[in-house]
Amino acid sequence: MGSTVFAGAATAGSSGLFRRDAGQSEWSRVSTGLPNRVRVYSILVAPGDPESLLIGTQYGVFRSEDGGENWSDLGVPSEDRPILSLLVHPKDPGTIYAGSDHTAIFKSEDNGESWRRLATVQPVGALTSCFPVRVLKMANDPANPDEIYGALEVGGIIRSLDGGEHWDDITQGLIDLTEQPHLKNCILSDNETEGMLDLHALTVSATQPGTVWIANRMGLFVSDDRGDNWREFGIGRFSDLTYARDLMTSPHDPKVLVAALSESSRGNAGSVYRSEDAGESWKRLDHDISIDSTVMTVSLSKHDPKRIFCAARLGQVFGTEDGGATWNALPLPEGVEDVRAIACF
What we know:
Helices cover 3% and strands 41% of the residues. By secondary structure, it is an all-beta fold.
């Protein structure tokens, strides 16, 4: 395989950051400058600089300026909250957002030198009795990067139109959809809105400003009006697996979307689907390998449109260098599980 890949795991005892360099068949644990037993929840490659990486951990945000060789703590005042998601302003790389538990989002406007907690809003329907409402993913609208969305685990979705200074709860349309019997779902509580509020990822269309896609326990859903209203896409028309964990737009072609679809949060099957028409239709992309657990995360290389890597919960990493024509399995070291993040160059 011709790509350097980073993978982050978050299970106690087998957690850490791992790297597999181009041309290598084995993974190495990355540790210089990182705390012992670090749990890695997110990995972000800085726009325009493949040597600059950020990771979100239980200890805050760490940065490497040399391709992952050495790391330094950026001192996010997260009050022992894990940093679960990261976002960098595409036109101002010095503006960084870090998402955490209890709907907390921290912002730096000086490349990580200082941070402040933003005044977010917790959706009215958020199920706080399950576990802390977590900011699992953030995304900008490419047409207006100060328009930011946050996907909340068992919490719904929030939106800022001014770079994070003010936030709106835009979850009501998802709650309204639970009036449909097939979208009622609860596992952790007795509230049947739970499945629809269990968001894992989101992306915003670069071809249709204000069009937001979300991935949640019940599948894929879309809003054409910045989240004011939502509709079910119906991924079940294309896939037997509908539990959606990750969703990305190609940095090379805004009409291309890639989604991680699985059986359940801890199921025995997973898959990767791609749309080449801005989400109108989807086709399964993975083959030649057996995915035996939930696909948690996908990464589309910013340098090569044919390079895609994915990771499943139980330590499987698999990738393609030819746009999905062939796939190779690159399992992490034995015992490494709960893979939450991946990044390929």
